[in-house]
Amino acid sequence: MNNILDELNNASDIMIAGHVRPDGDCVGSCSALYCYIRDNYPGKHVDVRLEHVPDSYRFISASSYISTDYTEEKEYDLFISVDVSNKERLGKALKYFGSAGKTVCIDHHISNEGFADVNLVVPEASSACEVLAGVMDMDKISREAAEALYMGIICDTGVFSYSCTSRQTMEIAGKLMEKGIPYTDIIENVFYEKTLLQQRLLGKCLLSAKMSLGGQMIAYYITREEMDSWGARNEDLEGIVSQMRQTRGVEVSVLASEDPEGSIKFSLRSKSYVNVNLIAGCFGGGGHERAAGFTVFEDPYKVFSEVEKLTAEQILRRVQERTGND
Ligand code: 5GP
Ligand code: MN
Predict the structure, then answer these.
(1) How far is the first Cα of the chain from the last one, in angstroms, to the nearest whole number?
(2) What is the CA radius of gyration of the chain?
(3) CB neighbours (10 Å) of residue 168?
(4) Per residue in 184-209, is it b (16+ CB within 10 Å) or e — as a string?
């Protein structure tokens, strides 16, 4: 197999899915792959499903092809998972994964062990969109698909600022720009623009956050009551944990929030050396070295102190390594 997309040749009924609580890379990669198959594989039937499409990602037209309906009972020839690090993160799409003739996984999470029949996991890639653009024929990427891919890349790289950004990322982004996409509008509307509620939530989290480990850790837990009193949805928290990390002296930022069903979602970010993927892994989650997450049903304050302890251990080890080398 030269190219993972060659799997498309042997399938006529195809389903694409991403992870629960979809982010920009997830929406971008799912909708770009949908457009690419629709445009270049005539005669194939393709569906794309996500549990929800946050408003900010609706800016790109390709997001309109995503269905949020999981009632259809169907066995697909081929199921393609994008931006999903483990099977459980497929959420409601898991039933289609289980019944599909063949499964393909295209991803960039370091914690991904390859759960499908055929796997392409590139941890060095900034985003699932970067992995996809690498396997797609650039000449066959439409402007609509290019917009979706560009959106995923800017979301997962923080507009090319995070350490996951590479020369390859920039080269792919450059080629997508040549498709005539409105790149400044995508960056502004998808990444930077926030609703007033989102801005106020950010303010609330920053005002109430607790500093620890001598100013190297910043953390906040936003309760369901608080979320409800603001009329806030989970997607309104997007970007807040990254903003918390920008505090001078901070190495690790943590934002936890309660889901309506009672589970607690933790989002972790690190600035330069703490491996938050390892920490998330201790609680059944994962992600990347600088951005990871997990979900628990335990007392969030107890979990916080465990996260703090694991962070402190990594910071101490770093100090010891550095003084040992001096
Ligand atoms: P976020 O904090 O923005 O939800 O996620 C940061 C990164 O960690 C993303 O790449 C996301 O896919 C991953 N991630 C978040 N939550 C989980 C989780 O519960 N399990 C796993 N395996 N990865 C997660
Ligand atoms: Mn991603």
Answers:
(1) 49
(2) 20
(3) 15
(4) eebbebbbeebeeebeebbebbeeeb
Give all domains of the chain, ordered by start, each with its CATH number. 2-192 (3.90.1640.10), 197-323 (3.10.310.30)
What is the distance in A from the centroid of ligand 2 to the CA of 84? 8
Output the CA 108–ligand 2 centroid distance in Å: 7
Q: Residues with Cβ within 5 Å of ion ligand 2?
A: 25, 83, 127-128, 156
Place of tokens 């979706």: 148
Question: What is the CA(267)–ligand 1 centre distance, in A?
Answer: 7
Residues with CB under 6 A from ligand 1: 19, 23, 85-86, 89, 109, 111, 267, 285-288, 291-295
Atom of ligand 1 nearest to the CA of 241: 2
> Cα dihedral angle (149, 150, 156, 157), rounded to 10 degrees?
140
What secondary structure does DSSP assign to 29-41, as a single string? HHHHHHHHHHHHS
Give the number of the atom of ligand 1 that is nearest the alpha carbon of residue 23.
3
For 41-70, write each residue's pLDDT tens digit: 999 999 999 999 999 999 999 999 999 999
Res 325 pLDDT > 80:
no
Token representation of residue 198: 């989102």
pLDDT in tens, 87-135: 999 999 999 999 999 999 999 999 999 999 999 999 999 999 999 999 9
All residues at 6 or more sequence positions from 315 whose CB lies less than 8 Å from its CB, including other chains: 213, 216, 251, 274
By most ligand atoms within 8 Å of CB, the mutation choice from 26, 82, 84, 85 for ligand 1 is 85
Predicted TM-score (pTM) of the model is: 0.95
- 191 DSSP 8-state letter: I
